[in-house]
Fold this sequence. Notes:
The longest helix is centred in the C-terminal third of the chain and has 26 residues, at 185-210. The two termini are 19 Å apart. β1, α3 (57-64) and β2 (73-78) form a beta-alpha-beta unit. The strands form two sheets. Strands 7-4-3-2-1-8-9 form a seven-stranded mixed beta sheet, with helices on both faces. The protein has a two-stranded antiparallel ribbon with strand order 5-6. The chain is an alpha/beta fold. The protein contains twelve helices and nine strands. It has helices at 11-16, 18-34, 57-64, 84-97, 112-118, 152-169, 177-180, 185-210, 216-225, 228-231, 240-245, 258-276, and strands spanning 37-43, 73-78, 101-105, 122-125, 137-141, 147-151, 250-252, 281-284, 289-292.
Amino acid sequence: xxxxxxxxxxxxxxxxxxxxxxxxxxxxxxxxxxxxxxxxxxxxxxxxxxxxxxxxxxxxxxxxxxxxxxxxxxxxxxxxxxxxxxxxxxxxxxxxxxxxxxxxxxxxxxxxxxxxxxxxxxxxxxxxxxxxxxxxxxxxxxxxxxxxxxxxxxxxxxxxxxxxxxxxxxxxxxxxxxxxxxxxxxxxxxxxxxxxxxxxxxxxxxxxxxxxxxxxxxxxxxxxxxxxxxxxxxxxxxxxxxxxxxxxxxxxxxxxxxxxxxxxxxxxxxxxxxxxxxxxxxxxxxxxxxxxx
Length: 293
């Protein structure tokens, strides 16, 4: 929405939106320090609908609508991940408008949100920041019917293990009958494609931007971040130091750095908002504020 003239803001109107104005003034403060446009995509990770999805594209386009083409963009992102295709579309949109594109991770950007970070020029992190592995995930019913999430690679590995055992022994153990019931080769093929998609996504954007000076490293880093056997858990913390060791281009800010203090103040304001109101996501800039339940 266009920035409102102070003369049009009545006292009650301003009071009802005081938290929004505080955040947008904080965005302006950060922009003054970085001399870049700051966009914010914050998901409420405690909500039922925090994942990146196609429904994010319209509000994200709204964020970009007032950004002049050729400006440098910072995207502050908090997200547990989600749809890989929607994540890539967000990168395309930022790249189309911005001359440069950085990501700021004050706290939590996992899975597909990590992929967005890998598509930027540089990642700004601090003591509370984390990214994670990028192996493709599947959700489905587990024991007792409860939903669970597991890596697509786990299905591939277990299928291959059974296949190797059959080849070695010449027969299939009856113990595997219930495990294989309902699983077809198309499902295993889909798992392989999902893993390959995630790896190729990372390799493509890393070689084009973050690792453009050493593109030969992009494939290795992408493969490493997809390595289930290395990380064991999709939720494992990869902090700023670990990310730098992996050769992700990280700018680590000390907790007493003034820019980090301003970023963390803004991040805390979203945390308070999510604790007080039933909001699953908010898209914000100095001129736009779009919140969704």
